[in-house]
Design a protein that fits this description.
mainly alpha
Length: 29
């Protein structure tokens, strides 16, 4: 795989509680 980091941000409380990042649309699982 080849990746490029395009943005860094602080995790939201919801992401921290779920243990993973959420995309721009929010929780989709």
């Amino acid at each position: 795989f080849s990746v490029e980091v395009v943005e860094l941000r602080q995790a939201t409380e919801e992401e921290i509680s779920h243990g993973h990042a959420h995309g721009p649309g929010g929780v989709e699982h």
